[in-house]
Amino acid sequence: MSDTGRVTKEIRDGIGTITFFHPKKNSLPGALLKEITAAVTDIGENPAVRVMVLRSEGDGPFCAGASFDELLSIQTFAQGKEFFMGFARLILAMKKCPKFIIARIQGKAVGGGVGVTAAADYALATERSAVKLSELALGIGPFVVGPAVERKLGSGPFSAMSIDADWRDAAWAKRHGLYVDIYPDIPALDAAVAAMAAKLAGCSPEAMALLKAACWKGSEEWDQLLESRAEMSGKLVLSAFTAKAIAAFKQQ
After folding, report:
1. Are 177 and 153 in contact (CB under 8 A)?
2. CB burial readout 7-30, b (16+ within 10 A) else e
3. What pLDDT is attached to residue 1?
4. How far apart, in whole angstroms, are the C-alpha atoms of residue 150 and residue 33?
5. What gap in Å lies between CA 184 and CA 60, rounded to an integer?
6. How far apart, in whole angstroms, are the C-alpha atoms of residue 118 and residue 153?
7. How far apart are CA 150 and CA 217, in angstroms?
8. Is residue 157 domain-resident?
């Protein structure tokens, strides 16, 4: 088993599936972010694909967010900005993809994992798929993922989970629009994801592309916005507070 993670792609019956894995709770180091972004772009441009499914391996967390090891290794502002641009580029690739993206959330999502979930067009989850924006507790703040999360939740719920950095259960996430629906277990989730993907695979690609663009109206300036947010995080990650906080989180 590689300790750097992996990304796999599969295309079948008009459905493009991207699966990512990292041994540390499906966290996202920079290299893995680049692979996922490239896969989203590649499948999005494939005329044989009508809908995309984004998922992670295992029956544990969907995504633990940023790699703590990589965050601790950042020594310069340029390195910090580049790391957070990895999340920015993935969110932008998901936004710009002309295909609807269904996110399969089998377990907890933290920080960047919440951002990836929010950037999907249609997220389905299990009842144990709690969510948390932990960035403020680390001395950073959910700046890069913030626009995607706020777009889904609204400003009030986004502000609350950003400020207190507490867990919200799957029912809360569904109630506020992050999840479309939740299911009692992974088999039920997989059946629902497969059914929705098959349904969308039978729809007009042109109509879906136009509808997706309409749903994302108001995000036209995100290229510049997310880069500026990556610069905020790239600066804050260099602080002594953040280094101490991340080291403490790693011990939990």
Report:
1. yes
2. bebeeeebbbbbbbbbeebbbbbb
3. 36
4. 21
5. 14
6. 9
7. 14
8. yes
Q: Are strands 100-105 and 109-110 parallel, antiparallel or unpaired?
A: unpaired
The two tokens of residue 220 are 């036209």
- Please say whether the beta carbons of 168 and 130 come within 8 A: yes
Structure token digits, residue 125:
């989850």
pLDDT for the residue 160: 97
Distance CA 238, CA 139 (A): 10
User: How many residues are recorded in the chain?
Assistant: 252
Token reading at 17 = 């599936």
> 120: domain CATH number?
3.90.226.10
- DSSP state letter for 136: G
> How many domains is the chain built from?
1
Hey, what are 210's tokens? 């136009």
Helix (H, G, I), strand (E, B) or coil at 109: strand
The average pLDDT across 86-110 equals 98
Q: What is the pTM of this model?
A: 0.96
Per-residue pLDDT, 84: 97
Neighbours of 41 (CB within 10 A): 17
Nearby residues of 119 by Cβ (< 8 Å), 6 or more positions away: 90, 91, 94, 95, 101, 148
**What is the DSSP track for 131-159?**
EE--GGGGTS-STTTHHHHHHHH-HHHHH
Determine the structural domain holding residue 179 and report its residue range.
Answer: 6-201
Confidence at 3, pLDDT banded by 50, 70, 90: confident
Name every residue whose Cβ is closer than 8 Å to that of residue 249 and which is 6 or more positions away in sequence.
68, 134, 137, 138
